Amino acid sequence: xxxxxxxxxxxxxxxxxxxxxxxxxxxxxxxxxxxxxxxxxxxxxxxxxxxxxxxxxxxxxxxxxxxxxxxxxxxxxxxxxxxxxxxxxxxxxxxxxxxxxxxxxxxxxxxxxxxxxxxxxxxxxxxxxxxxxxxxxxxxxxxxxxxxxxxxxxxxxxxxxxxxxxxxxxxxxxxxxxxxxxxxxxxxxxxxxxxxxxxxxxxxxxxxxxxxxxxxxxxxxxxxxxxxxxxxxxxxxxxxxxxxxxxxxxxxxxxxxxxxxxxxxxxxxxxxxxxxxxxxxxxxxxxxxxxxxxxxxxxxxxxxxxxxxxxxxxxxxxxxxxxxxxxxxxxxxxxxxxxxxxxxxxxxxxxxxxxxxxxxxxxxxxxxxxxxxxxxxxxxxxxxxxxxxxxxxxxxxxxxxxxxxxxxxxxx
Length: 412
What we know:
Elements: H1 2-17, H2 25-55, H3 67-74, H4 79-92, H5 96-103, H6 109-115, H7 121-129, H8 134-147, H9 150-164, E1 178-183, E2 189-194, H10 197-213, H11 223-241, E3 256-258, H12 260-264, E4 273-275, E5 284-286, H13 288-294, E6 299-305, E7 311-319, H14 323-333, E8 348-352, E9 367-371, H15 372-378, E10 383-386, E11 392-395, E12 401-402
Helix pairs in contact: 2-4, 3-4, 5-8, 10-11
């Protein structure tokens, strides 16, 4: 074991010492292909070793009942990765041709993951009942996995599974749908979801509509960033429409609790506010600047707390931007006024050019429509202003103006 670890370390040290800047394009491509094959081989050996250790009950040497707790505690793998290793080790015992291709580096762990449903107990029994030669299936899977695009392998597996269950009942697509959201210490949220084929098309189509409708000039966002912005915008639209189900008689909304001195202080005030009190209850810490931004085009409710945190007085809700003013701003601006942005009015907040907490009036002259992303940009140093001729201009944090080229008209 020690010798194996030493050889692997020496090889990796040699790779890490290579000067990649001295390599030309074809050499970098060859190196990439070789590294993928090497990673596949290492994954295969890890899978094979974990399976052998499980069968030998090796974890008992360290006082543990199986490899699952050993992998979690000794090498700090996640629960999902541990389950994958164990599942693959069991499946590959029944798919020797695929296992050989995996060990040779021609097949990846992700491809193995696609094939594992083929050898579940119920599928193996169904194949035997229909006279299916599992060895022939194994050969076909190994051939396609080693020589065809990933999606073709996935379609082949789906076709095979469908053929095994021609007379079966249509599965309930909702049974395996899941969405997991994790809130982190800094208030950020990450998540993972699993949807059936039809269910997955619906959010994909909805998010794509936002992505295609929001393609400003000079957009440098990655595809993942575009989809992230689209998800937030879709939630904004749904919340603003007021048609969502109520939460304990209160419509879904974002609540921010912030002390008055932090709210009026022009400083950023990191960690000054907390979201999620009341109807939502999700809880995240935000800065005073973020709290002021959220208040731009929303409702403000006064709640006075006593010395022990007990609410003493609940004032009436006050709308910062009244509906008639918002309509006027929408008619004037017709969308986000940030240079190069084409976000429609219903994606936008009404931004106070001079913030209301600093004495700025809630008026047409002091208002501008900004989409969620560009509202954030303005809160981080960018600036929009309307010149005497009624034209909106956008400035970077260094006070240089963002200029958008005018379209060239064809001359007949």
